Amino acid sequence: MTIADEIQEALKALRIAENHFNEAQTPNQVCMAIFEYNEALERYEKALRKAKAERTA
Predict the structure, then answer these.
(1) Is 90 exceeded by the pLDDT of residue 2?
(2) Residue pair 13/40 in contact by the 8 Å Cβ criterion
(3) pTM above 0.70?
(4) Domain-wise residue ranges, the chain
(5) Tens digit of each residue's pLDDT (9 = 90 or more) over 31-44
(6) Contact 46/7 with Cβ under 8 angstroms?
(7) Alpha carbon distance 36, 44 (integer Å)
């Protein structure tokens, strides 16, 4: 998998997590959506850092 693919997959996960948050109806769903969003955001930021490191190497 290329770094571009990793970024696209991470961005897709981030958008899905955001959608889950927007659709959450119970406090438990909101909590889980926030957790999912934070995990997806971390994955996206990690992919961006990796791309930047490869670009500067």
Answers:
(1) yes
(2) yes
(3) yes
(4) 3-56
(5) 999 999 999 999 99
(6) no
(7) 12
